[in-house]
């Protein structure tokens, strides 16, 4: 074996071992070196040497003494969550939102910028960089080194290259997101589809942390899904896995932004709910939503519909229930195809738990095969208002803590 190849293999193995040890400390800390050796199956000398390096970088710190089984008490190790700062970005059609966090994934500072209609590639990248710069400045003011930037991007994304490929709602193609940000900020940048990033957030901090196979469905300006099998995201050769919003549910349905007719998104996205409400209002249906909605699917539209339902508005409750039924039909198909243990529903309408989730669950139970439908649990996300940004932050954490094959 050539010496350069041997050196590369040793470096790769050491990096893998370091990630294994870091992840063991993250998951089980405070933890002793001996326990790390047992969990990772690495030799005690290997653990000792790598831990020494981690202590030097201050990403790991020694905490309390552990219980002794006879002899000297072991020194316990834990992650120093404040040693680095990260930036998480959700880059959508109408707005770009960036947040800061330490290694615990808890959001600290937030910046949100609007994206003008029909923004050019240069405009979009400029707004993205501006949002990131404002958050990075806040991190640097606190005197904390920047570990990396994670971006959850609307549409099709090639995470290997860090490229945004295409999105019908955005009308942009082939944006070099990673390259653009790494050139400006000189730190590693991870880029992923927004719903797949969200699924990673659920896997680390939410309802997906105790299951290996789950589906995350996001309902917002668009509708998408992310599939996690055996703990790993499913991308597909064209990075289009999970585009549930563009599956057909009605061959005679409305025209979708993708050019197809009757896509799920035309019945379940927030703009589609606004459209159906406006149609009912024009027909003379009485509702407290009269005058509250612009008809353009503004960012707060979903919340306004839920608020109306909470006030007892019949139209709002009917629209949410209809949305739940359409989602349930599509999710029943996914249950039959993939047999997930959990489906997590995310988005601004998840507050409408009973009005939307109950009809959704009933449709899944009615239409999916009895065995998989009986085994699946359908739950709302609990990551909160920063769910998408937490997902983007997780991309950075995943790079640090999870070994790469």
Characterization of the model:
The protein folds into three domains: 3-79, Arc Repressor Mutant, subunit A (Orthogonal Bundle), CATH 1.10.10; 85-203, Nucleotidyltransferase, domain 5, CATH 3.30.420; 209-382, 2-Layer Sandwich (Nucleotidyltransferase, domain 5), CATH 3.30.420. The chain is of the alpha/beta class and 405 residues long. α6 packs across α13, α9 crosses α10 (314-338) and α10 packs parallel to α11 (353-367). The two termini are 20 Å apart. The chain has helices at residues 3-28, 33-40, 44-57, 121-141, 177-185, 194-205, 265-268, 270-282, 301-310, 314-338, 353-367, 370-375, 387-401; strands spanning 31-32, 60-65, 75-79, 85-91, 95-101, 107-114, 146-153, 156-158, 163-167, 172-175, 189-193, 214-219, 223-229, 232-233, 342-346, 377-380.
Counting helices, strands and paired strands, the structural category is alpha/beta
CA-atom Rg in angstroms:
23 Å
CATH-derived topology of the largest domain: Nucleotidyltransferase, domain 5
Report low-confidence residues grouped into runs of 5 or more: 1-10
The CATH architecture of the largest domain can be given as 2-Layer Sandwich
Shape category: globular
The total of beta strands comes to 16
Count of helical regions: 13
Instruction: Supply the CATH class of the largest domain.
Output: Alpha Beta
Number of domains: 3
CATH superfamily of the largest domain: ATPase, nucleotide binding domain
Largest sheet: 5 strands, mixed
Major beta sheet, strand line-up:
6-5-4-7-11
